[in-house]
Structure prediction request, 860 residues.
Amino acid sequence: MLFSSLVDYIDGILLEKFEDRPGIRKTCLIIALVINISILGVMKYADFFVGSLNAIPGVSIPLPGIALPIGISFYTFQTTGYSIDVYRKKVKAERNYFRYLTYISMFSQLIAGPIVRYSQVSEELRKRDANLDLFTKGFYRFLIGLFRKVLIANRLGALWDSLRATEGLSCLGAWLGMFLFTLQLYYDFSAYSDMAIGLGLMMGFHFDENFRYPLSAQSLTDFWRRWHISLSGWFRDYLYIPLGGNRHGKLNELRNLFIVWLLTGLWHGASWNYVLWGLYHGIFLVLEKFVYGHLLDKLPKFIRHLYTLLIVVLGFGIFYFEKFGELGNYLMYAFKLAGNRFAGPEILWIVGNNIPLIVVAVILMYPIFPKILSAYHSLREGTKNVWYLLGGLAATGLLFLCLAELTGNSFNPFLYFRF
Amino acid sequence: MRRQGEEREKGRVKGREKGRVKGRVKGRVKKEKVIKLIKNIPIFLMIAMLSVFAILFVILPKKTFSETENRMLEQFPEITVKDIVNGDFQKGFEEYLSDQFPLRDTLLSVSVRTSRALGNREVHDVIYAADENGETRLIDLYKKPQNREKFTNGVMNFSGKLNRAKVTVLLLPTAIDFYREELPELYKMQDSPLEADTLSYFENAFGEAAEEGSDDAKDGNLSEIRYVRGYKEAALSEMEAGHNIYYRTDHHWTIYGAYAGYKALAPYLGIPEVKKDASCFHAASNDFYGTTWSKVLDSSVSPDRIDIYTNPAWAGTLEVSYEDTGEKADSPYEMSYVSKKDQYSLFLNNQHTLICIKNPDADTKRCDDAKHSSLVIIKDSYANSLVPLLIDQYETIWVFDPRYYKGSISEWVNEHEEVEDVLIVYNLGTMDEDRGIGGIY
Prediction:
């Protein structure tokens, strides 16, 4: 990380120094990009490529087996984005290496995003106010993330595990499983963003939202405007548009979309199922854009939402299984091809035991919280204070429950470390 | 003059008002500060709570052993460059943190109680059932063992190495299928008698081996393996007689479950099926909380009773030697465990590599008139409650714990020609965690 940020730091300065020599600037940028991408490529994808090559008969290369540094996908994208921004003269190069390093290694978002752009924080890196109001705001934001992770995501994960282990899973049970995994992934991942944004606020940084209720989307296009916004934004600005975007005819646009979604898939993990997942989304997005998008708009909201959920849930089914054999098996159950029943009692056992959890998780998929907040803001000052205090006390109770939950389940793997 | 005075008066009033307004503003600022302070009380509370835990973590002495969980707790991991690079240190540190976390037991039970209050009937792989008196019965979820082939092959190889002694295998199901009626309605609807599947797997595997064995036995390659059937029937009849065959808070069987095991064994070992004296069963403890309970630490569950079997005829003649520690006793029970958490350990004094039990007054008469006076038992902790029931029928019983016995048990048996029977006793619930299976050779 030190090395990779140093490369882009120097690169940024060089880019500015040779302001009027486009040739040198281009070379500088290309060098930086090549270095960044090859570091990511070797660290994250070496095993994957070698493993894939080994699948060809007669090829047998030992796996390099490099340990993945934490957050490599996130900081590589940040440094790369920075270099491109300096090249495009969108931001001024950072002269102070330590300040630059602070930007790259800000611990709050290092592990699981969001991908913060330099332009967002360049001002605040120099001068920011960290005051008590911001601190408390950030603290509560952090707690919301913690609750979502510990009280919702972890518990949903346990349900998904136990459904997967069910022998003779029914068709509906398999779909319930994928749905619970989708919920888990959403709460897990967006919880990290909540915590990162919260920690940022506590220190006086303002990061952009990374999730805007993606599971309430009305179409897949809508979903991607709401899910992991900083990643799709990155791909749009630094890959899709430089490739030509939609400006050079449909064929080029299709090619560009294909590349973007292939890489989006691959970014999530060095395994073929992620590639498949990226292409799966790419295909549906293309279909929405060119084939049935206008038809979709005419359908009732509810149907559009259901359509989106179905595609997203099945997509995360693909996302989960790194081995195609296991994925195939599971999908056989989901499409009732394994001689299994349509509905089985395992659904009642799982749901019946966890009604409050599932109800809360489903309700919070939708933008309820902003509505509560705006209702709160329209209250009189005095009533507002009472609710603020009550909310805080509730948070205190929930924090205690979180501690209990974390100690109770010593087993607590973090889902998003693979990126 | 008058006018001047009026104006002066006016000025004075103005000044006074100014002061009052100033005071009011000051008051309001003060009030706002107080409100802000009150508003942020929860934040102070939370920070205080976290700090208390952090301070407790630092100052509390670190424990090495957890009585409630009956296991060693993680200690601060060694710091080496290698461990840091491959992540072992970080993992070790996480485990250390969670194992040594202050008020761990209290927090665990808070989390379990919340789960229960939200309507969950399964917590940490424990199902809450209710027996006919409405008392809670905690039942461990049964998970299909991954070691089935390993166990079968191990036992067959072992049996093949024996010169003379014959192997009898007794495999014991856990409580879950016996107490199906007591399980929550929603769980009962799942028709997955997984454990019955596993049992029939073993029945088939060892049944075939017995046939093969009879062929090979002619060539002297394999000795016959006797696979014990009939435990289920015996256990059901014990249940009908009103006995609790499994503990409500522990994964082990009770002495009555063990008695059912004894009855199932009887025709295979040629021992009498019914114990003469039922009055030999009596209570040893009334406040036993077992390992299943330790997973949930739920104080709303009432404690178990431990009954034991003792024969008055043992007095003065029985000799129990724990070969690994050199201890000797005149009873298979170590009653000092009753005052500890881990009360099940009163059976055969917890874990020992090798135990020798001598009963000179044993009734060694067998149906086939042959003399079977020595028995070797290879077992897990289930057998600890079974052994006392076998004492009356054998002059010598050798009890091996293959987890700790370093060496070949088959060689040992071949060296001791007086041993005619080897009994292998395992339960299905812990087969995967049992490192002893690899020790049978």
